[in-house]
Amino acid sequence: MSNNAISASVTRNVSALTIALWFAAALLEGIDLQSAGIAAPGIAGEFMLDKAQLGWVLSASTFGLVIGAAVGGRLADWRGRKFVLVLCVTLYGLFSIATAQSWSFATLVLARFLTGVGMGGAMPNLVAMVSESVPPRLRSTMMGLMYCGMPVGSAVAAGIGWLLIDEYGWRVVFYIGGIGPVLIAPLLAWGLPESRDFAQRKAQVARVAPQAIGKALFGDGRLIPTLGLWLSFFFVLFALYELLSWLPTLLIAKGYDRATAASFLILFNLGAMCGMILSCYLLDHSKRASAAIIAMYLAVMISLGLLAYGTGDVVVALGVTGAGMFTAAVQLVVYGLAPNYYEPLIRGTGMGWLVAIGRCGSVAGPLSAGLLLAAGIGASDVLVIAIPGLILAMIAVLIVLARTQRSLA
After folding, report:
1. What does the DSSP assignment read for 356-396?
2. Which residue in 126, 174, 316, 360 has the most C-beta neighbors within 10 A?
3. Are 366 and 242 in contact (CB under 8 A)?
4. What phi and psi values does residue 221 have, to the nearest 5 degrees?
5. Angle 27-33-36 (CA atoms, 0-180°, nearest 5)?
6. Whole-number pLDDT of residue 371
7. What domains does the chain contain, in order, with CATH numbers?
8. In degrees rounded to 5, what are phi and psi of residue 12?
């Protein structure tokens, strides 16, 4: 079969079912990403963990995410996006269930680490699959639709925490977050087509030698874009995962009860959905993208300040909503730019390493917050430690965007 025939065949398969499966995979990952933060007070109480130990529990999955993203992206360039995605969804589902069955601090950390390995391999393959399966003019829109599944999943997890934890205990969040992926993995294997560009790669594999990782990441003019995207993603995820992991605990420290904290988490994730829609619009209408991106980064910093030092329910709600909206928006900007720099033969590797470096930020954020809280730093002061990094992230992504606009001119 010719490459054109393969492309046409796969493009026809980007149906409503395909979009729904992409969305469902992202939604389930969103549930698990939020689960540990929601369950944190119950975990700390049952296992008598101090703040530093709880920080390790919250960060263990993100250590796994780093490894899973780097290995999963590279494996996807060899075996295919679909195969690795199904494998990773199954893996994080099983180990989310294992988290609920943990009996000690050590087993909690191990189960969360292995859950993270599965989640780390899933997300870069979802991003690569979406970017490779739709026309460029629809890429940002479709990526946004897919990625909206994550805040929806996080909102579902917050709702589970709000409605069920008091009656059934913290383990219910992980049981629900684990059973879903295990059930949907066979549907992904049955209903999800392989990405168009990977199908083309299979037809070429006999005559195309795989590139070394260094050349794939930094060769052919990719040094500055790769490093800029890495830097930006690191600090964006530092801020995002600090919020995701510690926001329930920090809200309780500000005097809110668990039900109110859960309602604020729903606001955070609804804001994230709106931010993703905003970001998609900017990427598809990019004449003034630089100014808009500067505004979004500044809005993140202002929102963190409101959340940290604001008083009153309305101000805190604005801070929570804005933090969710604009951290999600700037994250999706990076996801939207990155596929432009990695051709199909190396896109899994490029996206995998981007996610892996970003996940280093998502390790550093919760862990830093936990260590600072354990050292006696106030909850409000902990929230604003992400602001200097966000300034660097903004500068880096603007440099990358400027190079993209020049290359497309």
Report:
1. HHHHHHHHHHHHHHHHHHHTT--HHHHHGGGHHHHHHHHHH
2. 174
3. yes
4. 80, 15
5. 135
6. 81
7. 3-204+211-408 (1.20.1250.20)
8. -60, -25
- Amino acid identity of residue 228, one-letter, is G
Q: Give the Å distances, CA to CA, from 392 to 39, 211, 297, 362, 372.
A: 32, 31, 10, 16, 22
CA dihedral 149, 151, 153, 157 (to 10 degrees): 180
CA dihedral of residues 269, 33, 120, 243 (deg, nearest 10): 70
Half-sphere exposure of 209 (CA within 13 A, CB side): 3
Q: Residue for token digits 């549930």? A: 31
C-alpha to C-alpha distance for 55 and 320, rounded to whole angstroms: 21
What are the tokens at 313? 């329910």
Strands annotated E in 202-264: none
What lies within 8 Å, CB to CB, of 182 at 6+ separation is 90, 93, 94, 97
Could you list the mean pLDDT of each consecutive 10-residue stretch along the chain, which spans 409 residues?
A: 40 59 75 74 78 76 81 75 84 87 86 86 76 68 72 74 72 82 82 67 54 75 88 90 76 76 79 78 65 87 86 85 87 79 77 84 79 76 84 90 59
pTM of this prediction? 0.74
Contact between 127 and 238 under an 8 Å Cβ cutoff? The reply is no
Residue 135: CA count within 13 A, CB half-sphere? 5
Gap between the Cα atoms of 193 and 329, Å rounded = 28
Tokens of 8: 């046409």
Give the list of residues 6+ apart from residue 154 with CB closer than 8 angstroms, or none: 30, 31, 33, 34, 244, 265, 268, 269, 272
Tokens of 170: 């913290």
Among 113, 134, 133, 131, residue whose Cα is nearest residue 123 = 131
